[in-house]
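Hey,

The postdoc asked me to send both predictions to you directly instead of through the lab channel. I've kept everything plain text so nothing gets mangled by the mail client. Protein one:
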Amino acid sequence: MSRSREIVRTATVCTYLFRHGETPTLPDGKREDRLTPRGERQAALAGMTHLKNLQVLGILSSGTRRSTETIRTACTAAGMEVPGVEVVAAIGFSWIDDQVPPCDFYAIERRLHEEYGGSRRVPIYAWLEAYPHAQATRGRLTEFLHHRAKQEFMEWPLHSMINLVGGSHGPTAATAALNTRETMGLDFADGIRYDVEVVRYDTDEIETKLVRSRVLTCPDCK
């Protein structure tokens, strides 16, 4: 009979992902890849509201200028130094256009906003049904959260709480939410926090589990 495993270490890896702040809208409905002055204020307010006094061990971006500007601004407003930002495609959605035929994301986004009374905070399950690539983005983001949690767990052996922050360029950053019916997609500078519990056993096996997801609303900037 095999003996039962014993837990030798546990930790929680918290990943905070923020949608970019407001950007200029082009005549065709698409967005410029930069923040407006209001978008900069939104990013700063999101940082002061949700990241103040947080010990952060990694700063990420989905790779666009607007997502990088957002997370830099948020972290700076929260009092952090930002020596560098790591680009991680999995926290955005542009990567999928290199693998499958692209769809008109902005047309889908406009239709969903109209269906929900003009709000950008559309339930994630509606995104999963309306956006053809949403399931793929959900799968890759979920895989990233587990893989990165394990990686950070091994890199920081004395930490029981590990925090990462990142900037994304789409509401799809919330597609990995545990409850897709109650979780809203992200408006400008909204965020979502994912908590992954990591357990190491005396057999050297490491297991991860996504245990919480919670939207972090950006206070309104007038």
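Protein two:
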Amino acid sequence: MMSKIENITNSILEEAEKKAAEILHNAHKRKEDLLAENKNAAVEESELIISKSTAQVETIIDGIITENQRIYRDKVLAAKQSLLNTIFTKAADRFSNINEAMLIKRFENYLETNNPPTSLIIKIPINCPEV
């Protein structure tokens, strides 16, 4: 009878060991599945963070480029304005120092030595002869 009880006990122990091994196997498999899911979720989240960061960096770079272009344009415009101011100042100085009688004499001399245009607009060349 003892042998039957031992056989039943051994059978129950074998079955329990098989069940325990199956439970351990399922637990390890579930652990691996959860790790894989977590890894995939982490990879997706990191890719999303990288994508957002890249977009932000591109926006910042575009802003910096736009600002530098504006600064460059402003400097070019300021240089052009300075040049125009210099030219107009020199022209105003030259015209303010012109002797009116001499200017009229030069104009009359030019008209006498050149064929005057028939229109009302008369173009006076830069190298107009002196009186």
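Summary for protein two, as requested: The longest helix spans residues 2-96.

Thanks,
C.
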